[in-house]
Fold this protein.
Amino acid sequence: MSTNYAAPTLSQIAASSSDILTLQLSTLPDVLTALVPDSSDFPTNWSVYPILGDDPETPLWAGEEVDTGTWDDAEDEMEKLMGIELQIPKEALRPYLNTDVELRYKFVDESSMEPFSQVLMLRIEA
C-alpha cells in the first residue's frame, strides 16, 4: 500500500540533484542514519522501519522498528515524534555493492496495513 509519503533522506550525506544517490562503502560510518520527513500524514501510534529492495511488500532487508509517537503523561495523550531516525548498518548495504538498491521506510499499524514511502535510489560503490 503506497501513500505519498516523502522519500527518506540520509543525515550524513548531502542531497543529490540526480535521481540516484551514490554511496562509497569505504567512506560510510558503521551505521547510516535515514531520516523520516516530519509529516502530519501518519498517526502517533504507528511504528516505522527502513527497508531495502525493489518490492516493499517483501523487502530484501528490513531494519529495526522505531515508534512514531510517545506517551505524554502531562497531556494524557500520544505526542508525535519529529526528526525520526532509522538505522541502517553499513553491512546491510554490502550485498548491493556495485548495484543500485531502493531505500524506503515502511509503517506498521494495528490494522495490518503497511504503507511505505517513495523511493530513495542508492548506488553502492566500494
User: Anything to note?
Assistant: Helices lie at 90-93.
